[in-house]
Each structure stands twice: as structure tokens, then as C-alpha cells.
Design brief:
The chain is of the alpha+beta class. The protein has 3 helices and 10 strands, in the order βββββββαβββαα.
């Protein structure tokens, strides 16, 4: 927490497997006194797997919170003791079966900083070799291999609804030397 914020009172009202919900009474910069609800998350990695021919691997999975299946970049939580690179390699194998020769950090960002402290780390995975996926017991994933032109169309047609995937693909399409 930044030094210029003073926490007057903090209470954890829920602690689950993935998130914790905390209610804080704080004095923010400029003297604002407020009650803030914060969803705490250890952080995640977002993996942009790029095949040698330039296609990008996305996974489609049902997301209960949205009530629908979404196309997404490979992603998952960073476990205690893991770096974003380590988590990226683990998640890539789990969700797709691919292994990456190179995992390159691109940037990190916050998906919804108004109430969620989760930091997402976008990494590019290249030099891919295929193997067997090892999804978690509650994951049902379908892989899709997409050209940049197809991804551009999907974004224009608003077919991708996941914020981390929109951020990663927008970065790729903006900076790709195609």
C-alpha cells in the first residue's frame, strides 16, 4: 500500500481459495476518508502463445460468472513462490499441452482497479512444441489456432469479451511487424 494512504481499520470478511474480500476505512491522498471494499488476489499470468507460423492459440471455456463460454488467452493464478515466467510455463502446459522455448514478459496491468488488486502479467510464449494438456479437474478447454487477420476480425465484431485477451491481442496487433 502506498505510504500516503493511511488505513484506519481493516477487516477481512471473506477468505476463499482464490480471493479474499477486505473492507478498509482509509484516509486517501488529499485527506479523503472513505470505506473501500477490496477483492484481494495473488496475481495472474496471461500467456500469448504464438506458433512459428504466427497463429495465436486461444482457449475457449465456460465461465460461470458470465454464464457463457469465452475465447481467452491462456491464463491462471501465480502460485506462492512462482515468478510470472514460471506460472506462464505451467499454465501453458496445463491448458494447451504446449511447451515454450522462450517466455518473454511484455507488461503488467490491473483489470479492474476500482475494487480488485489483481495484477496481471502478459507474457509472450514462442518456440512452441506440442505435448499433452493437463487441465485441472474442473476445466473443460477447447483450443483454437487463429491468424492475426482472424483475431482482428473477431475483435472488430466484438466476439472477444474477455478484458485480458482484448488487452493482449490489441498489444500484439498494434506492435506486430506484419
Amino acid at each position: 500500500m502506498a505510504a500516503h494512504v493511511r488505513i484506519l481499520h481493516s477487516k477481512t470478511i471473506y477468505a476463499g481459495k482464490v480471493v479474499k474480500l477486505r473492507v478498509d476505512r482509509v484516509v486517501e491522498p488529499g485527506g479523503v476518508i472513505a470505506v473501500r471494499e477490496v477483492v484481494c488476489h495473488q496475481g495472474s499470468v496471461v500467456v500469448m502463445p504464438i506458433l512459428p507460423d504466427g497463429r495465436v492459440i486461444l482457449v475457449r471455456q465456460f465461465r460461470y460468472a458470465t454464464g457463457r463460454s469465452l475465447w481467452e488467452l491462456v491464463a491462471g493464478g501465480i502460485e506462492r513462490g512462482e515468478t510470472p515466467r514460471m506460472a506462464a510455463r505451467r499454465e501453458l502446459i496445463e491448458e494447451t499441452g504446449y511447451r515454450a522455448r522462450t517466455v518473454k514478459p511484455l507488461f503488467d496491468f490491473f483489470a479492474s482497479p476500482g475494487f480488485l488488486n489483481e495484477r496481471l502479467h502478459l507474457v509472450e510464449a514462442t518456440g512452441l512444441t506440442h505435448g499433452e494438456a493437463r487441465p485441472e479437474a474442473d476445466e473443460r478447454l477447447h483450443l483454437g489456432l487463429f491468424t492475426l487477420a482472424h483475431l482482428r476480425k473477431m475483435l472488430r465484431r466484438k466476439q472477444i469479451k474477455d478484458a485480458k485477451t482484448i488487452a493482449g491481442l490489441s498489444w500484439l496487433l498494434l506492435f506486430n511487424k506484419e
